[in-house]
Recover the amino acids of this structure.
């Protein structure tokens, strides 16, 4: 539902108001906006008249913003920044659009990056900006149009497109396997098992899948898959890795699979975007493409 237009002041009124609050004086705001001091004062007065709210205390020629005015200025600043970024994006790329996408670091480098050429070739007008985030965030507070998410819980106030369930394999370096012969899944319990912070019960689930109820040896803890993969490739221990991450390393001979099944992970990957914002053409194009790529 759209708000009445009387609650949407012009950009010139809001720019003058925000500048006075941020810079502390009408003279400083006038210099920044290339206006006269009198013009800035009139714009501020017009905004107060339109809103029917006193935004400043007058002390001589000084304007002192009220506390509600300072809170309003913070929201106005965000809106003006959003308009500025949208305008710059349109100017830089009038034929396509800009998509700001938050990605998981390892998913982005190992699954998404090798496939991005296909998307960009099909949509040459789209400018794609990538940033890494490990955990869900507030779309209203971050400059992202969408995010790649992993987990089981829904992202608050967001729409989502499921991509694929995680499948997990246990792998180690060939040298590690030569030094630690393994014939059955239970043989892994006595060996160093590398851990990942985001899946603290992964090894427990892996052993339970194989019907093994025995204590197991825990190894080094990592906060991301990429360094854990490198540690496994250099013989530090055995890693539980997403299949899409392990398979290229196995194909190159840096890792081998240990005894045991491929098991289901603890969640799925999904594309998410804010529910209260209509998807842009760039996001729709990316959403349609990644749905096909994930299959």
């Amino acid at each position: 539902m759209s708000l009445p237009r009387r609650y949407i002041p012009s950009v010139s009124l809001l720019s003058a108001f925000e500048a006075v609050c941020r810079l502390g004086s009408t003279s400083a705001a006038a210099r920044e906006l290339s206006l006269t001091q009198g013009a800035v004062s009139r714009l501020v007065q017009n905004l107060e008249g339109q809103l029917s709210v006193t935004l400043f205390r007058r002390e001589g020629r000084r304007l002192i913003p009220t506390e509600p005015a300072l809170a309003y200025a913070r929201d106005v600043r965000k809106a003006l920044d959003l308009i500025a970024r949208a305008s710059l994006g349109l100017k830089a790329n009038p034929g396509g659009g800009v998509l700001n996408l938050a990605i998981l670091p390892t998913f982005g480098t190992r699954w998404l990056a090798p496939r991005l050429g296909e998307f960009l070739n099909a949509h040459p007008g789209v400018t794609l900006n990538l940033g890494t985030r490990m955990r869900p965030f507030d779309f209203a507070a971050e400059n992202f149009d969408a995010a790649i998410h992993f987990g089981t819980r829904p992202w608050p106030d967001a729409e989502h497109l499921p991509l694929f369930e995680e499948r997990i394999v246990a792998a180690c370096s060939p040298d590690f396997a030569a030094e630690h012969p393994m014939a059955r899944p239970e043989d892994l319990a006595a060996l160093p098992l590398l851990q990942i912070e985001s899946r603290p019960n992964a090894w427990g689930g892996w052993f339970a899948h194989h019907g093994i109820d025995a204590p197991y040896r825990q190894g080094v803890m990592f906060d991301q898959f990429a360094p854990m993969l490198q540690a496994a490739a250099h013989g530090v221990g055995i890693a539980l890795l997403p299949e899409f991450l392990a398979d290229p390393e196995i194909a190159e001979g840096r890792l081998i699979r240990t005894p045991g099944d491929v098991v289901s992970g603890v969640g799925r990957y999904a594309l998410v975007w804010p529910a209260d914002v209509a998807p842009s053409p760039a996001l729709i194009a990316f959403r349609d493409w990644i749905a096909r790529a994930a299959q």
